[in-house]
């Protein structure tokens, strides 16, 4: 045959599907080893996580119901909507363990769907960054423009519903200063909220949803707003209110003066004040530790089971007598 | 049966009422009405013979039969409305009333302007794209806008764009080819002179002249040729791939007119353009006479004129209306079994999808109802818009509509539950698999220089599930290279040593003008016979030998063609003909010194032992399926006249005068029996000298018959029968139809793999059985049940008897555990006529399914399909049919997988097939290796894609439950879109193309491993449900570990979304990695590359300040909880899978598992020593 005309496929390891390959097989040894390894790795991690969680001191105080005066107890809504009623509410919380600085002050809202489709969409990222884009409010309905057609900055439901309860903490008669600087992400302050964008027409008319903003301060420095606008993932969420940079001794009692302005009564939302320290796994959270111990335990258990299985029912690898046609000969 | 496939017309399905009318005319002893008649008509209609395979071939049956066809048609008027009128040499008048299509062709689909709309239109014919489109459109409605515009259109747009670029490139290539074709010059008669004209300018009605070795530019009706008798030889290799020459004839009425000198005019009335390349129906009015035209009068576009100086014809069909262009359709499409099953599961998945959507919309409804009073000012809902004077609802359309919208929105969000990308991945994977099948050097046939061909791209995986193989015999199991083996001449058997001449000076040759001419093919000759044939004396035996070889050299339709060789002094004679048997006989005669060197329609020249002799061919009676013989009447130089007849033993012995020499007849019969018992094809040759009176009678009746206008075929047959009698027996020839290389081993492997091999052949029973033995299909230990019956009742009885015996036998073997004594069923076509399509089918099926081997002999093409259908309709098993000839087309199309042998016989089988290859033995690597791999890969890929998409959807679904059922996704829309495009697409395709569960060597050594495909081990409903449960578990782990870990924390939704995105992509890829068996660098690159690509994409998305998730991933990655979560998810989600896998592997190992372990551990030494490259097939 003429060599040039031959259509014989040119040989390559690739085209003949013979590329060198690593062919791992899950042998009993490997399986037991991986079970035991995972088990011995996961249980200590779980214990570490548990102890870390244990070291976190977390104090939370639900105040939404308690702060409603007795004569309004059945009509909390009219209480919160009435501008003439004094909203201040004093709570005392006990410190069970020493709180080591930095202590994070959170407010926690429950049953508040910050991830609701209507809500998450109602914002304008452009407007927040760029003073020239203040008319970019088409996503912000129903809080995009004032009645006379001026754009609201920041527009949208998220900004409109900005949380406006305030807390004053004091212990032993001494006020505890809460640092509200640096509570928002640096990246947000730098790039997402413009340093030359100032609030305009915000909370000026119609229904007032929450806090007002100082029109003299650019958005990049309105850290409460920035924190609030990073919408929470779940309907039960915390937002950072501020940081306390002094330790609080155990068994102290903290007096909290709450301006209870934010209306969650309408939809059965709950409000909590939370003081918490953090460790490497964040706040108080026993779940991760338990899960790791659980998974590690299962792995150890399975590892032992497989050892027993291989001891009592061994099977030689690649034993041809296990082939189906050797077990039931066919014609 | 064949109508659902747009491919070449099969001979069985040619012209509908045409066949019935002719068959009732022609086959008088038509005992089997329906099947036989179809077979007959098909063999008459097609130029290429079919029925010669039903017995030995006696010659071509081109002209006269086809002519008579024409006559019988001419009685049936071509309906005026359906006719096309062509005025010969008058294109203006021809195109006056109807503008017939010009000769320019356009295979390109699009022009610059039509490309966009047409291409889009064609692309949207795919259901998958429609689904994409509808979802994208839904998403554009403002109420439903779940994703941004860009994100929702991107996947569809990218797929459309890629396909469009591919289509445009292919079309550009077609346009280029068209241009070359259209601008080819041809010679056209203009103003009584032949001028060169571009091919595209030829019009219907014009007269075209074609010279030797030129390609015909359009379909022409032959008017005259350089041959005085009006014969033109054409090669149709471009049309149907058959390389032998076919004869075309000019009509008596026109052949004497030379265009340019004589005036030619006339009117041709022919049928509308159609795609039947074997049928043509027309009549021509010349000089007031009406002549009918048949398929032998038309030369089709694409054919090449050979051995004829020139031919002139009138264009009747041009351009896209030519039969060649009408047949220019793509490969047939079948849907694979796996895909059918997959579609069933996809329906289940859409059911899941609807369920999820109903749950979400119902919950959303309840939520809205419960909070009805609060919605107005709820900060995160704010139904009322207070900014206007009129307080009105904002974006709220009432509860009912809101529920409806949330249903539609959930369809949009959960759309990838239906893995549309799977269809695209499957196509890519199949292309990849096809690449490897084509490039496999173990399926390359060096002899015919053909690669494996993948004609159907969508049934690769079916090759791994075949249970029944239906094989043709001639050309498939055997080489169809006929070799003359033995001769029995007047009762003397010459079957001695045959090595004498082989290799010595290349055999017999002659000197012509100082040049050496030798036959192209060398034949082994019997030394004794050679010596006898060379000695010329007047002994009786020498004369008989002379007559015998003269008969072989003369009594045929072979055309000798002289071919130049590299040596200027040497030329080769290539015997071209339609039947390989005849070729073998002529080559044999040449080897013994009777070399046919010239044939025209009037005479032949034979060089007899160096002495050139010219014989007049006074008449020829072509082969037909009733007589099963052919004869030629030769006028000797000394003006004696003899008739030579050759034919099948069954019909020849009826016309041989036994009284002449009874002992010779008896011994010849014995020889014939012994020849056919070793699988040789036999022919009997006889002759008779004609007296002048006899010759005159014959000649007059022959002339009347051959010029008769009506019933010519019948008349000619009568003439033939009258002269073919009282013959003296010359002898018999035995031709070996050699088994192809590796056939017995291949059959052995297939049988071991649990595949039932049935042989369906047109050959006679003895030949079939002997091939059965030589191919190891039959063994001496087998019990043979033979069914040969002539009536329905007897068929019924023998079937019943056979069932009883087989049952008994099977019970016995079961008791004795002896697998050797199995049952073989041998059944012939006549019995099948009574059994197929009757209530006996059921019994036959029952019997056949008990038999290890089934041999069907003397079956017609349609019966072959009937047998395939017998199995296909009654079982769930997959069938594969393999054949090489036109008579296998129906069977190939009927079976689930059709394989064509691209050998010497035509390409029709290849054209109808899904896969084509050079040798039968390639079936073993094709099915056991590639089929197995393809099945495992595809099955895994489908399940994996279901898992991958469902997992993502479940995670989205869980989150929706925490958002007030409002279909918010915390995973960014870009990640949702890229998930099945970038994050996870490539590894599954790479694994689908490249992963191999077992090495070629293991699969070839243990054919039983093929059983896993037959048992549907890798894809079944159980596996689907197991996968879905696993998916559910993994989704719970992926979703709830982060949820609980970040419960009551200040996590924002973008960060949590990023965590979910990374977690799901990691586990989806790790899941795949756990199942990959062979890790080549490509698998490593694709899997780890996808993970890295995902990280990069997430980082890029989070680096865009305009998106809400800006910088989330960086803040997230700085917290320890994130990493702890990720690790925990990876381990916890895989644990159940890992445990189940380990447990199954240890306690219930499947064959593949054991073989894989054996591969790795037991042959570890061997593998490292030899490497996998040298692990060639055990069967050469």
From TrEMBL, chain A:
Compartment(s): Membrane
Keywords on record: Membrane, Transmembrane, Transmembrane helix
Transmembrane segments: 29-50, 290-312
InterPro entries noted in UniProt: CDC50/LEM3_fam
UniProt key word Membrane: yes
The keyword rRNA-binding is annotated on this UniProt entry: no
Cellular compartments per GO CC: endoplasmic reticulum; Golgi apparatus; plasma membrane
Sequence similarity: Belongs to the CDC50/LEM3 family.
Protein's name according to its UniProt entry: ALA-interacting subunit
TrEMBL record, chain B:
GO CC annotations on file: plasma membrane
GO molecular function, one term: ATP binding
Keyword Translocase: yes
Class in the EC hierarchy, top level: translocase
Transmembrane segments: 151-169, 346-368, 403-424, 946-965, 977-994, 1023-1047, 1059-1079, 1091-1114, 1120-1140
This protein's record includes keyword Manganese: no
Region Disordered, residue ranges: 1-37
Domain P-type ATPase C-terminal residues, every copy: 910-1149
Compositionally skewed regions (Low complexity) per UniProt: 12-37
EC number of the protein: 7.6.2.1
Catalytic activity line of the entry: ATP + H2O + phospholipidSide 1 = ADP + phosphate + phospholipidSide 2
Stated family: Belongs to the cation transport ATPase (P-type) (TC 3.A.3) family. Type IV subfamily.
Protein name: Phospholipid-transporting ATPase
Source organism per UniProt: Deinandra increscens subsp. villosa
